[in-house]
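Researcher: Sequence recovery benchmark, item below. Answer with residues only.
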């Protein structure tokens, strides 16, 4: 993937803790994944 990484926080400000380093907002994540699938032409 080229360009900046998508914002998957969904507007939430997660704490900068190691255990939360992989937290994403599920709606923002799904939207980003669908957009990437469409971009790839799948």
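Model:
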């Amino acid at each position: 993937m080229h360009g900046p990484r998508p914002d998957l926080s969904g507007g939430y400000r997660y704490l900068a803790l190691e255990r939360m380093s992989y937290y994403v907002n599920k709606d923002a994540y799904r939207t980003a994944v669908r957009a990437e699938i469409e971009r790839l032409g799948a």
